[in-house]
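Work Package 4 report. The design task specified in the project plan requires that, given a folded chain encoded as structure tokens, an amino acid be chosen for each position. We show below one input record used in the internal validation round.
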């Protein structure tokens, strides 16, 4: 959004100045003319370069949260169902939105609709807030005259997606936090505590046992090269992310992730649950099959799943059934493809997809619980072994020191 300054004359002859945010100057001109102003001057106001950088960095302030979108969709659905015009409904909701970034977006959407733009087009101009799936479903609701029903389904879908995402985060964050704490404690013991004992051992002149010498070598290595290790890890992570942005890189990494023991089956279940939930919601909302599959592929979050879905789309375009190309991809479990085939034959594809999604969401929940309960004792045992090895390595020379003092 750019900021435009203007100077206009009102119908009473008064000269007014002001500013307005818009994507292009033409939109500002249209809005001013609708208010019956005579435009004298207009031009874009260039922002300070530093302010632009700060605005781009301060993403937390401008971020639109998922719960904001869910609440907005549900409330707008209720207002439209009650017969409130869309522009009036957006005006009512604007007074209840606390998020400044979201309020700016909805203000722009309302102004676009007032200027004659369709609801779908107005939403599609904000892809960072309204996803392609959201826009496609609104388009089907706008064309079918059931926008309130579609928005209600969208709210349910977004809530289910947020719940699934929270489960995955709980499975990934817990072991990551435990591993970080374990690594930090170990590094502290090796870098800070162990060197303190070195002077004592050197002054005593006792011969150090092999475990202690190994520990001291490891401590010296970390103390001298810890900065390079951290820099290397950062470079590796950044390089991996850049590699993942390439088509070959994302395909290779996603394929490897699906094959990783323990986590691979969980990621596959998550992908299947997301695919069936999204596909079922789109089909139920009246989105054409080919368009729905394209949307599902782009929102899958896994390049292997995306490739399989796009291949299914092309096969369906040539006259095949939905289930057959999914079976040939080898990505989806047999139970999923069989239920989709039954849904095609009975004409209840959307209902069957919803049942598959519910089943796999429960599977994800059970897998996350099992993974969490398994990781906790493994991490405790690992920390016990590491800290115990450090303690034993430090106490072994103390026994020799005691013997030397006794002599």
């Amino acid at each position: 959004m750019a900021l435009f300054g203007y100077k206009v004359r009102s119908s009473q002859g008064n000269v007014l100045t002001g500013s307005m945010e818009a994507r292009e100057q033409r939109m500002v001109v249209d809005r001013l003319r609708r208010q019956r102003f005579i435009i004298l001057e207009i031009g874009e106001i260039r922002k300070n370069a530093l302010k632009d950088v700060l605005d781009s960095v301060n993403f937390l302030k401008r971020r639109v949260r998922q719960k904001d979108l869910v609440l907005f969709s549900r409330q707008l659905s209720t207002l439209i169902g009650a017969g409130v015009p869309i522009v009036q409904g957006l005006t009512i909701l604007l007074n209840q939105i606390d998020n400044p970034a979201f309020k700016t977006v909805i203000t722009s959407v309302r102004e676009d609709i007032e200027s004659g733009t369709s609801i779908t087009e107005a939403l599609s101009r904000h892809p960072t807030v309204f996803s392609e799936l959201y826009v496609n479903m609104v388009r089907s609701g706008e064309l079918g005259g059931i926008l309130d029903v579609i928005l209600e389904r969208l709210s349910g879908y977004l809530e289910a997606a947020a719940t699934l995402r929270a489960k995955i985060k709980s499975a990934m964050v817990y072991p990551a936090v435990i591993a970080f704490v374990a690594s930090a404690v170990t590094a502290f013991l090796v870098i800070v505590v162990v060197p303190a004992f070195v002077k004592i051992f050197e002054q005593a002149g006792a011969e150090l046992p092999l475990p202690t010498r190994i520990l001291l070598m490891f401590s010296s290595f970390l103390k001298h090269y810890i900065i390079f290790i951290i820099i290397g890890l950062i470079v590796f992570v950044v390089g991996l992310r850049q590699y993942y942005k390439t088509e070959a890189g994302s395909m290779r990494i996603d394929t490897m992730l699906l094959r990783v023991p323990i986590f691979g089956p969980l990621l596959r279940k998550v992908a299947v649950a997301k695919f069936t939930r999204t596909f079922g919601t789109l089909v139920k909302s009246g989105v054409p099959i080919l368009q729905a599959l394209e949307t599902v592929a782009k929102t899958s979050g896994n390049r292997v799943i995306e490739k399989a879905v796009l291949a299914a789309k092309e096969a369906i375009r040539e006259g095949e059934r939905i289930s057959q190309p999914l079976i040939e991809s080898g990505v989806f479990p047999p139970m999923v493809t069989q239920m989709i085939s039954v849904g095609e034959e009975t004409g209840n594809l959307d209902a069957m997809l919803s049942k598959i999604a519910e089943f796999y969401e429960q599977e994800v929940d059970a897998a996350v619980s099992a993974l969490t309960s398994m990781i906790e004792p493994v991490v405790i045992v690992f920390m016990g072994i590491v800290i115990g090895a450090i303690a034993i390595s430090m106490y072994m020379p103390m026994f020799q020191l005691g013997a030397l003092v006794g002599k």
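The longest strand covers residues 2-9. Validation will be extended to a larger panel in the next phase.
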